[in-house]
Amino acid sequence: RKEKRKKMSVSKIEKIKQSLFEVISQTNDDQLKESLIEEILPEPTFYASFEHVLIIEGIPIVKPEKVEKLKIILTKLFESCGKLLSNFLLPTDKNGCTIGFVVVEFSNQKEATNELQGFEFDSKHIFKIYKYKEYQDIIKYPDTYVAKTQVPFKEPENIYTWLLDKKPNPRVQFATFQGDATEVFWFESRGKPESIVKRSTWTEIFFDWSPRGSFFVTAHQQGAIIWGADEFKCLCKLLNPKPAMVKFSPQETYIAITSFEKKINVSIWGVKIENKLASFDFTDLAEIMIKFTSSERFAAFVRNKKLIVCVLPEWKIIELDSNFEGQILDFSWSPNEHILSASILIDSTTVCVIIYDFDSQQVLKEKFYSSTKCQLYWQNESEYLCVIPDPIVKAGVEKTIIDVYCIQERDIPVQVITVSGSITTVAWEPHGHQFAILQPTGITEKSKNNVGFYLVEEKIVHKGTIEDLQIDKLIWSPRGTLIVLAGIDKFNGVIEFFDSSTMTRLASGEHLMCTSVEWDPTGRFVATVSSAFKHTIETGYFLWSSQGRLLQKVLKEKFYAFAWRPRMTGLLIKAQEQKLKASLPQLIKKYKAIDSKERETENQANNAQRNQKIEDFEAYLQSKQQECENEKAIRKNLRNGIDSDDENDYEIKRMTYKEVVKEATTILQ
């Protein structure tokens, strides 16, 4: 009924307009006619845009007598391809002949282009479509070709020269920040750290390495500066005031800079193009971490408890389906694939753990837990995902369930074990199938902890537990097998070196007021650091071998930071790595012989240096003795003929002295 009323009202308005036009046409006053028409008809709108205009080439060139016939044919053709906004323009030359193109304005330019592009009008005429803007760009080109001046080729900076170290012994690099000086060193197992470059006020706030070690970034009040190549040249400057944190993407294409100026903001910059690509504002400090996939195809973060996923390099936000509805507690990407795991709070007592594949856009696994939170831990080769919900208390006994999702197997089966007590953290062995858990023995901050080791096979096997340790950190070697059990801050720097393959303690050490522990990327050295950001005394760093032997002890005032330079991942496939491991016994003998020879050469050099110093000292002593002998007559003359060098020229005189020590009076009766 409403539609009928609308149609009736429109028809009535049209009839009224028609009658008014008839009345106006009978009026002889032209000025009155114009004023009445302006009131009845709206003022026409002029469109300056040419977004609907197409220029079509390939129109037949015909003589004047055939132009009208061509127009009729083209009109039928164009009307079949879409609605025309105006009559098309068919240009002609001074003789009235067409010149091979036509200008048409369609309401739907895209649809018309799809219909007419490549259309065969006849065997000799094929349409070619241009947008008006494209045509304008084409006619801007000059008719005569002008060759561009050749810019001489400039060799780009080689950011991998440090990997071409020619020293016979493999070395690693690390950087330190002490006082106002930042310094980069080479280090090998024998010898002291060798300084490469040292600069005052190189950084004002902090520094960091990129994931592959290609770049070194320093933070300043105005923004961040990226350094690299030989002698750490300045490669680019990113104007992002007051940076508080930086994070590179896995392949070093992007860098996320967090700043707290006026508001919490994370800006995404292109490392090589030096442009800001995206910017995101946050209200919660806990949500500022942007996580990338290893391929840099996707990036994700949490904002206002909701998951945001972007497609790179466009940084276009994806609309997520209903599977991600709820409060996001935690999420993480698979280390090698486009698979995202997330724990979502459904209500006050229910958490959903979802595993979602963004390539197929399918939910791979979904499981609900009666818990308030779930911790997620990926194995670095994406084979397993460990999920730890809240502990369960039954009959006064506290227990924790450990779920291990086997990602690579069909339907993602879940292996489940239950351990007594709560779990503080889980640490997967790199390139391995075992993980370690840290369990407190009490409820106080300084309570000792137990460390349990588990191996994932067809079933989860408990390898063993080390009890009552004053440690709170588990740090695996990048090569696996070895693990450092460290007591940071509250445990005063207890360091335990442990071999998980044999379940034996290799060594124990201590670094008082230690604030962090870091393995070098080769797995040969460990650095323990005491930072002036937390302590004012005993700041510096210790360097240890992987077996727990103290190599270097460096204490410096106002020592703030230490960081190993990362390396690129190995290029060998698994089969090649296994072949290399099989040949290790022969390689060990070979390199032991090389080490023995180098040690012998080093000892010979040290002995030669020591013998040379002894010879130099003896020569110096003889020269001074000869000089003393030559000046003997002069000294004797100065001492009135007394020979001061004659040790036997002396007299012995005996003298007796009496001294009253005490006087006392005693009365006898």
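Second entry:
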Amino acid sequence: MLIFFLVTQVIIVTVLADSSSTPSPTIPEHAVDRVPKPFNISANGTIRITSKLKDGDTFLVFECHCRASRVLMSYIEDPNTLATVNSSDPALIYQNDLMNPGSGIRDPGVYILNPHNYSVVVVAMVKAYTVDDPVPGRCDTKHQVPVLTIDWSQAVIRLNFSKASLSLFECNSPKAVQYRVYHMYLHRDGWGEGDRDQQFMEAIGNFSEIEDIEARGKQVNTLGNKVNRLMFASYQPMGSLYAVIATQGNGSSVYALGHTYGCHVDHISGVCPDTSHTVTKVASAICIFMGLVMAFAGHRFFLTSQFFFGFYAGGFVGYILLSSAHLHFVEIFSLSVLSGFVMAILVSGLWFFLGIPVLSVLLPTLEVGIILASSILFLLPQHSLLSLTDDLYYWLVFLCLMLAMPVILLAFTQKASILSCVILGSTVIALPVDYFLGTGLRFIFINVVRRASVPKFHLALPLPSWQTEDMMVVACWLGVAMAALITQLLVERRKPPFPPAPFQQWRWRREMDMEGEDSETAPLLSDEDSLVDTVSSPVVGYIIGHRPVTGIPQASPVTVRTSEILQGRSRSSNGVRGPMASTRGRDIFKPPSPEESRPYLGQYSPRQGEEWVG
């Protein structure tokens, strides 16, 4: 490795010496320093940036940054050489011990080439270091360049860099150099002052020196086994800046900055290509209206809210299962919607036929638990909680947080239903708004899908972006939730906790119709008198503002004179039979009608009723 390094350096010296003897007057030269400067390179054009060597400078790090395109950086004008870097953030090292200024070579410098048929704007600078500072990227046996290699996919961004060292002999000592990796988000498109190139240049200038990096950046640690291999969650089209500081002894050096938007930026528009689909925009607009109904009147229209709860649950689970199937977007979307409708029909049918409030509120509280668990795990600093990289531990924590909501809320069934409608409805409103504004709130739930479907996503650092626009969306989210909660509590304060199930309503109407037909064919007078057994009218539930009545005590039997008297009363009450005349066992879940309660009121005084009640 040492021999290869020396041969490479000798070749570079020879090439530079040859190129310096016959300078090309057509290539413009620009002097640069530690302050970033912008340069416009024409189509297929080339410029040369130079710097003066000072006493004590051991090596120089030339770097340039192009926001939307890749450029070439080389020691010579011809880019077809070994030491050429092709990147949007290229950088090269200029060794002072090999490049003696007294040998007739021009000022130290490198060439920047634009290989495209359109002009580009680059930001260039140079940093000088002393003999005590480690050389970035020196331990790479092939290309000793101080660059950060960045590649990305739709879900993750990978950052790699070669290790630094004072000399080649120390590259085998893994703990000789300490590395600190910093991350900073760029302004979103359409937010902030100035155009995109001005914002990018300002960000580079504010993130170039060690003091600025430590002040403005967020230090992160790798979740894997290698210190020079990091993985980040991708929040395209949100741009990110990366910086690596290498420290050995009393010396420190900075790798060339790296940046990415998690996409191939279009050089014409300057932003990531729009990969959204029309069906996604239409579905997002529909979800806003569905969220308004859920948030402000979900419990009022209970069967409709059950349909929505089932649709969201089925669609979410279906999308997670289909994401790893390598299908097209239209296929995944269609199957997810189909699974949502199937789940919605099942959940609605559960309330339609059974009408059990606790059972029907279980799924909404579970969905509230999913929202809570996703938000907490998104905001947790996972770079300091290495245990969350274990999938088993992560999903166990997620499950516990999800089940906490049903355990806490199911004891208050009506309030749990209202709160679930409010939280889920406001979330369904906030996510489409976040999608149209381009903020990062939706990634709270996208990261859960990625964790379940993307391989090795457990090694990715979430690093949520909390900028001004994100806080505005969160504040609106909480404001809508608060207004919806107050509205539903005021509307439902003096109403029954839950409406009757449609199937039970149909059964009650059917029984009343059958009883009405029996009363029409019953004789007016029976042949002989009979006493009717004691009947207590059960009451289900309670009425706000009244004392609870559990029934008439068994110790005080209620008797009536004869069945003829009861039949006469029933005829005087629009032909409806009295409560004692029917031999059919009544449904305890059916509230008593006024005609059924009237005989008790006529036979007992209010004083006796008060003594029985307590």
